[in-house]
């Protein structure tokens, strides 16, 4: 083989391997969770569009839809995220797309949507569930029990899809399986959904059994069941 051609081939191979390594490294360090499920929230139209984890930040992309004339919204400087099942806590670093209180975004119309980002330090990869809390004096927002597992979110969404196409029995069974697979999850929304479906189906034994299991559990919000 021609020496110059061999050297060129070797150089191209090294560049290809370097690019491949950098791409793998980036994928390992960056993760995006789209529209994660959660246990509780304070504002009806507040939603998480996505959560991005980079090698530096945890970025929460949110939106809120205005439902009143003259509505306003702002983000306090005292916002933090914490492990729903532990004690780790991370204070906000910065925000984008939303004024810091007492300044506020003035909605121009009903159903106007405001999208914004909150930046926090990168969280531990061991954290599976997250609480987002605004610590303020009035109309503070929070979302609790945010699920950070893409596979778990997919399974929950599949149960909801089954319900939407009237496969209610399969939906309830799927939700029950998820309940027993996630015993460490601190909120009860999976119980609430499954209990509601069994009640709709007239399955009184299933309804009673699951309700009793809920009341024996350590779910934070179990007493919200009506």
In short:
With 226 residues, the chain is of the alpha+beta class.
* Gross morphology: globular
- Compute the average pLDDT: 89
N/C terminus separation: 80 Å
Percent in helix: 25-40%
Strand-and-helix sequence, N→C? HEEEEEEEEEEEEHHHH
Main sheet characteristics: 5 strands, antiparallel
Strand content: 25-35%
- According to DSSP, the number of beta strands is 12
The CATH topology of the largest domain, please?
Answer: Immunoglobulin-like
Within the largest sheet, what's the order of strands?
A: 1-3-4-10-8
Architecture of the largest domain, CATH level 2? Sandwich
Structural class: alpha+beta
* CATH classification class of the largest domain: Mainly Beta
Total individual domains: 3
- Tell me the Rg in angstroms: 23 Å
Number of helices: 5
Q: Report the uncertain regions.
A: 1-9, 11-28
């Amino acid at each position: 083989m021609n020496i110059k051609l061999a050297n060129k081939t070797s150089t191209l191979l090294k560049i290809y391997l370097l690019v491949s390594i950098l791409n793998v490294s980036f994928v390992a360090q960056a993760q995006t969770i789209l529209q994660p499920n959660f246990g509780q929230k304070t504002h009806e139209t507040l939603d998480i569009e996505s959560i991005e984890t980079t090698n530096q930040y945890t970025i929460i992309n949110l939106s809120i839809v205005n439902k009143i004339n003259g509505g306003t919204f702002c983000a306090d400087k005292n916002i933090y995220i914490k492990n729903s099942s532990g004690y780790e806590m991370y204070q906000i670093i910065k925000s984008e797309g939303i004024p810091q209180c007492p300044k506020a975004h003035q909605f121009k119309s009903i159903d106007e949507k405001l999208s914004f980002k909150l930046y926090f330090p990168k969280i531990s990869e061991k954290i599976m569930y997250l609480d987002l809390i605004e610590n303020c004096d009035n109309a503070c927002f929070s979302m609790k029990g945010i699920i950070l597992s893409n596979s778990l979110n997919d399974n929950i969404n599949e149960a909801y899809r089954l319900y939407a196409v009237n496969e209610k029995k399969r939906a309830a069974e799927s939700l029950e399986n998820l309940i027993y697979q996630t015993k460490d999850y601190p909120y009860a929304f999976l119980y609430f959904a499954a209990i509601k479906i069994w009640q709709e189906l007239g399955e009184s034994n299933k309804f009673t059994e699951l309700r009793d299991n809920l009341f024996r559990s350590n779910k934070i919000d179990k007493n919200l069941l009506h």
